[in-house]
Amino acid sequence: MPATFYLQSHVFLCRARRHWVILDVNRDKYLSVDRGQFESLGPWLHGWEGGAGCVADDPGAAADGALALANSLLSVAILSERADGAKPARATALATPMAAADVDLPANARKPALAHVMAFFLSAAKADRQLRGQLFRSIVADVQARKRRKEAPGPRFDWDRARALVEVFDRLRLFYPRPYLCLFDSLALLHFLARYGLYPDWVFGVTADPFEAHCWVQAGRVVLNDTLERVSAFTPIMGV
Prior knowledge:
Structural class: alpha+beta
Order of helices and strands: EEEEHHEEEHHHHEEEHE
Helix content: 25-40%
Oligomer: single chain
Distance between the termini: 34 Å
Largest sheet: 5 strands, mixed
Strand order of the largest sheet: 7-10-9-8-11
Low-confidence stretches: none
Radius of gyration: 20 Å
């Protein structure tokens, strides 16, 4: 067994009750590995803080199993034997959502302005186009790059403005001819808010028993486009 294996920068981890879930952004794939099996590999993972697996009756067999898992993860570039471009093998740590934005549309809500309508349809069309013709890793990289480039350090998130814009988005979403889907709707909302200088997080979460993946838009501890009850069922695995 080599001294150390390195988790690649495009890979994200979260720990469920009986499994570790792996998100490989480059391949747009999730993998689920038995918790004890993955944690048996821990002593050889750079930066590992995920605990130890069950004590094995046969340490030699456990080491063989860990090596077999390592070889499998090396073969798909989740792990590497080189430190270049690597990061510590740790579960993703994101702010736990504590509330959801109240964006119920009042009966007397004003109609969106023409500028809002144009911004919405341009944002939705961009998300639609990206999801149809662009690799997932490229979409994630684009969102990350825009956020780094344009997000101003220091000022607090403008909640009142964000809430009003999410209301506008929800009202106009009824007229966009695409079925509701968390990936599209979250990406379109990110593009829409970015047009007004707001850059919340794009959060991906999973459940392992049974497996399900979901994503939503979150600023701090507040969910902007979903309910707290819904997102609380998922363990965050990546924030963009």
